[in-house]
Amino acid sequence: MGVRVSDLTRTYHRGKGWRPRGAEVTALAGLSLEVPTGEVHGLLGPNGAGKTTLCKVLSTILLPSSGSAAVLGHDVVAEAALVRPLLGIVFGGERGLYWKLSGRQNLRYWAALYKLPDDVARRRADELLERLGLTAKADDLVETYSRGMKQRLHLARGLIGDPKVVLFDEPTTGMDPVAAHDFRGLIGELRDEGRTILITTHDMAEAEEVCDRVTLIDKGRVLATETPRGLARMSARHRWVEADEAEVDVRHLPGVVEVARRDGVLRVRTDGDASARAVLDFLLDNGVRSVRAAPPTLEEVYLEIIGSRGMGV
């Protein structure tokens, strides 16, 4: 098993300084999760759901209050020294890079922390700089990098130790669409290499495209774990109808909840099977020939299950 988490809890007290005060906060509340070796697994949830806390426990940065977690069979508390070399961690953001060093120097430094031999460190750094499109800027100071370039360097840093398990926390933040597309290709390559990948993301399209399974987390608890398609099947409250190049107005039909158009496709959300059939019949009766029942997107399932807590903490 790549990652196994059992009844994991993490609590802390709000406050500042070395003597925190205030109410106890539960970041993880008996969370259990299994990610098989070689799987790309997405963690989805609103702000404050516990996603980053889980990643920090798995990476031995935080200790759990109770429960257990293991990476490739090694307990993250009792065998932390064995877990760390197995992990690549990409938390992103502005921290974790040395701005007064070049991109190449950053990678060589992190390779040294993994105790890689010099020749291996040089080769790995060059390979990753090329793989992530940073070769031309490899010897420039990181302080001159754009936000997207820094994020790509974060990815390279997370892979420099040739990890078996990679934790990505919001990996495409700050990337332009081309770089984000390339990142998704990179995830496929890492899966093909047999690595286990855990991704926290708010990008539903990204999760739907790259993840074998996803777990919805809220208030430190698992709400559901399924394939993206499996989650769509679990979403039984609404039914969806799509039609290509349809100019017909269906908003007046009973049971129609929402109507949207994107790239020439009419997408109609209805309140059940009977309403969906009525919309299909209406479209066909009005000369629309490219009509189909469609599953909900992962974003729609997420909003249905999580509700309006996306901006809450």
Which word captures the global form? globular
Major β-sheet strand ordering: 6-7-8-3-9-10
The description of the largest β-sheet is: 6 strands, mixed
Percent range for β-strand residues: 25-35%
Instruction: Please report the total strand number as a whole number.
Output: 14
Overall pLDDT confidence: 87
The amount of helix comes to 25-40%
CATH class of the largest domain: Alpha Beta
Count of separate structural domains: 2
Class based on secondary structure composition and strand pairing = alpha/beta
CATH architecture of the largest domain: 3-Layer(aba) Sandwich
Question: Roughly how many Å is the radius of gyration?
Answer: 23 Å
As residue ranges, the low-confidence spans are: none
Work out the helix count: 10
The secondary-structure element order is EEEHEEHEHHHEHEHEEHEEEHEH
| The named CATH superfamily of the largest domain | P-loop containing nucleotide triphosphate hydrolases
Q: Determine the N-to-C terminus distance.
A: 32 Å
